[in-house]
């Protein structure tokens, strides 16, 4: 065997291992609707990141969807409620609306909305992620990463803040408010004052301090961002292959006889341009590292500590 050929053969295992490592560091978002009502998740890429294969979709109770992403992706994911769209994908939502479209296409959520925010690392760099209610709250959600190297921390806001939302922050649904409280605004949105918005002379962590209203949010959801400079207890790092993003993790009424959460419906969303697909299925068919009911039980305990 020639020296050149020997070098090629020796190099093949290295290339193969490098391929496997790069594949391990690819990441997906597994979004699950555990709410008793239909939701419409939306996604928004940050500056310099491509939009995800879907920027808006419908999930009925128990449905889940896997969305692939790329290393270095940065952006946010949220859920809209009370939406009505026509055959062209035009309409509106009671909460989390993104320009009156099913596909958000680069438009962010109209506050108030609970947000999952993340910046994925490249190579060996870690991911940074959080759940934020700085822009208000509409639904409970938790985010549980599956680590490439060891365990990672779950985070989120599993409490129903709408039930204890101060009257001055309440967003009510239906004609004349007959639909009850559907979201809880931030003090910034409600009052527009610099000390609540961390703007103007309050645009730094020294002068912008927790308010009476952010304390309410923080007590209900100690791991979530409650105001702009709430970094110390709200930002987490990990190197994960998948993030399970579950809306209404503590909801009742849609458990199946085998203890899983979900329905039997399934669909496939085609990814534009390159033909890849996003698999939508019942959450009972989503392959998480542990069964869904165990995951939710663990998250419920951890978020209360």
How would you explain this protein's 3D organization?
With 305 residues, the protein is α+β, with helices and mostly antiparallel strands. It is 17% helix and 26% strand. The chain contains 5 helices and 16 strands.
Q: Strand count, sense and closure of the main sheet?
A: 7 strands, mixed
**Classification by helices and strands:** alpha+beta
Q: What do we call the CATH topology of the domain at 27-160 and 221-254?
A: Thaumatin
Order of adjacent strands in the largest pleated sheet? 10-9-14-1-3-16-15
Order of helices and strands: HEEEEEEEEEEEEHHHEEEEH
The CATH architecture of the domain at 27-160 and 221-254 can be given as Sandwich
Number of helices: 5
Helix proportion:
10-25%
Given this structure, which CATH class of the domain at 27-160 and 221-254 is correct?
Mainly Beta
CATH superfamily of the domain at 27-160 and 221-254: Thaumatin
| Dominant shape | globular
Rg calculated over all Cα atoms: 21 Å
In whole angstroms, how far apart are the ends?
Answer: 63 Å
Give the integer mean of the pLDDT values.
Answer: 81
The counted number of beta strands is 16
Percentage beta strand: 25-35%
Low-confidence stretches: 2-24, 253-298
